[in-house]
Task: structure prediction
Amino acid sequence: KKTTTKKQHVVSRLPPVLCLHLKRFHGLQKMDDFVSFPAHNLNMGEYLPHWCEDSGFSDNASQRLEDFAPPPDVLYELFGSVNHFGNLHNGHYVANVK
Result:
């Protein structure tokens, strides 16, 4: 029997400097989809389990996350990126740093 599921990613705390790596290969094929991200004020607060700590969340299934306080703002500024040009077998990387 199929059931409804929800996939969720949360982290317990965020570091002062955040490094994200995006997997850009699927099998042997490079993914060429455009990726957009902010250069200023990347808010990672929504990925913190703040509702567990701040709101005394219980296992009561009738409570919804929307009933709790909004997520805190945890803002990051982009100061560098590394891009790969080429394919799985060859290419080069270009670093951009502020």
Remarks:
- Helices lie at 50-54.
- Confidence is low (pLDDT under 50) at residues 51-59.
